[in-house]
Amino acid sequence: MSANRLGEFLRARRVAAKPSPDPPRQRRRTPGLRREEVAARAAISADYYTRLEQGRERHPSARVLDALATALELSTAETGYLHGLVTPLPATRPTADDVPNEFLLLVMQSWALGPAYIVNHRSDVLAANQAARQLFEHFEISDNILRMLFLDPAAQRLWADWDDLTRHLVSGIRRMIGPATDIDPATTTLIADVSRKSPEFAALWNSHEMGVYEHKEKKFHHEDLGEIKLDFELLATIDSPNQYLVLHRAPGGALPADHTGQL
To answer: Which residue, 14, 73, 178, 259, has most beta carbons within 10 Å?
Structure first.
């Protein structure tokens, strides 16, 4: 795993940034912004910005970081992540509790509108209701959502919106993990393993996207019911910040009673 997190992030977001229109007859050879363009937008020297990307300068001021965030048109989540890459991190990071939070578990068990399950920040599945367990039966890998979507042979066949779903999941996991990837050994191992086995995941992870989706929806193919759409939302508690309850329902309400049990 590379230690140049700041440079990787800046380079990925620079390539993804939308450039200003080029003069007529002048074709842009590379996507996104040039280093000189980012530096000009942030009012810093091109040499200094280059050293940031290359990892030869690792301690920019908060003012420079804010200027870079503006230059790259970063979201609030991305700006916070950028600052976290420079802010000194604690020597250890609390690991995700493997015991589901009691109140999240109670809500999950009482949820009757569709699949519900509890995951940690690495997307390890800690608990699931009956509808979710029946959904997971379609997969060979069901103990970790990230591994399921990228490494299970059934994933692309069963998830109708696999491309959108994986992009959303990876950006969400990056937000939840934050800039402390290298401090959590289990997370480091997970990211390295899935990156090695899935080029699709490696490309998404290296893009450093952290988009926030206002409307969360999943679509999957059911052998009896055809394509099913489910809205979903994540809930968390103050006492267990590394755990998330994922709730699903049919748009506008519950699935028909005779269908919920078939998921």
So the answer is: 14
Helical packing angle, 76-86 and 5-16, nearest 10°: 150
CA distance 34 to 215: 33
- The whole model's pTM is what? 0.76
CATH level 3 topology of 102-260: Beta-Lactamase (3.30.450)
Q: What is the pLDDT of residues 170-198, one digit of tens each?
A: 988 888 877 666 677 888 899 999 999 99
User: What pLDDT was estimated at residue 222?
Assistant: 72
Superfamily of domain 5-86: lambda repressor-like DNA-binding domains (1.10.260.40)
Helix ranges (H only) for the chain are 5-16, 35-42, 46-54, 62-71, 76-86, 102-110, 130-136, 145-151, 155-158, 162-177, 185-197, 199-206, 257-260
pLDDT average per 10 residues of sequence, the chain (263 residues): 81 89 62 92 94 92 93 88 78 63 96 94 94 90 95 91 90 79 81 96 91 73 78 89 91 52 44
Amino acid at 105: L
DSSP class of 94:
P
Q: Looking at residue 226, what DSSP letter applies?
A: E
The residues spanned by each domain of the chain are 5-86, 102-260
CB 125 within 8 A of CB 141: no
**CA separation for the pair 236, 50 (Å, rounded):** 39
Cα dist from 129 to 29, 101, 105, 113, 143, whole Å: 51, 14, 9, 11, 14
How many other C-beta atoms are found inside a 10 Å radius of the C-beta of residue 22? 9
Tokens of 158: 């069963």
